[in-house]
Amino acid sequence: MNIYTRTGDEGMTSLKGGRVPKDHLRVEAYGQLDELNAFVGVALTHAAEDSYAELREQLQNIQHELFDCGSDLAFAEDKLGKVTYKVTEDLVLRLERWIDEHNAANVELRRFILPGGSALASALHVCRTVCRRAERHVVSLARSEEINPYAQQYVNRLSDYFFVAARRANGLLQVQDVEYARSAVVFSRKEKKE
């Protein structure tokens, strides 16, 4: 298999159903997801400890699902026809469950925190910020072309996942999150009124 094909030498690339410029919104969107996937791989290198087994398994699943998201975005608009997407509502709902589980296990958040703590938490905060950038590109694409709406929802939930997973990674090693020094108390769990 040749790694180089020379077919992109003039700035064009292939999508499912046709060719587009390499700076096309679809290429930019799935390229951002590819970059995010690489950072998830970096995070996984910091997740070798036994206490991280659950996070490691989740991150490995997320890597496959990011490939699925990229695949769902890689269609030439004029050739879409009937498309069977890979990212489904079930994947979004599962991410929400993971977010809720990690959030419930985390120490209550009262102030803004700085990215950092353990090596895994730091890597997950990088994933969070790259995910937000990727989401902005997916949103731009969705404004101009048809996309799988669940892919957009998945990427939106994923940045929330990375935030709570980073805090969970710190908690599992008993490393405290570093609060932003000038932050007021901005978060509180609402008490149920009787």
Automatic annotation (TrEMBL):
Residue ranges occupied by any Cobalamin adenosyltransferase-like domain in the UniProt entry: 3-168
Q: What is an example of a Pfam family matching this protein?
A: Cob_adeno_trans
Q: What is this protein called?
A: Corrinoid adenosyltransferase
By its UniProt entry, which InterPro entries does this protein fall under?
CblAdoTrfase-like, CblAdoTrfase-like_sf, PduO-typ
- Recall the GO molecular function terms of this protein's record: ATP binding; corrinoid adenosyltransferase activity
Pathway noted in the entry: Cofactor biosynthesis; adenosylcobalamin biosynthesis; adenosylcobalamin from cob(II)yrinate a,c-diamide: step 2/7
Reaction(s) catalyzed by this protein?
2 cob(II)yrinate a,c diamide + reduced [electron-transfer flavoprotein] + 2 ATP = 2 adenosylcob(III)yrinate a,c-diamide + 2 triphosphate + oxidized [electron-transfer flavoprotein] + 3 H(+); 2 cob(II)alamin + reduced [electron-transfer flavoprotein] + 2 ATP = 2 adenosylcob(III)alamin + 2 triphosphate + oxidized [electron-transfer flavoprotein] + 3 H(+)
Any one Gene Ontology BP term? cobalamin biosynthetic process
Its assembly, as annotated, is: Homotrimer.
Which NCBIfam families did the record assign?
PduO_Nterm
The entry's family comment says: Belongs to the Cob(I)alamin adenosyltransferase family.
Q: Which organism is it from?
A: Paenibacillus aquistagni
> Coiled-coil segments, which residues?
none
Which EC number(s) does UniProt give?
A: 2.5.1.17
Protein keywords? ATP-binding, Cobalamin biosynthesis, Nucleotide-binding, Transferase
Q: Which SUPFAM superfamilies does the record associate with it?
A: Cobalamin adenosyltransferase-like (SSF89028)
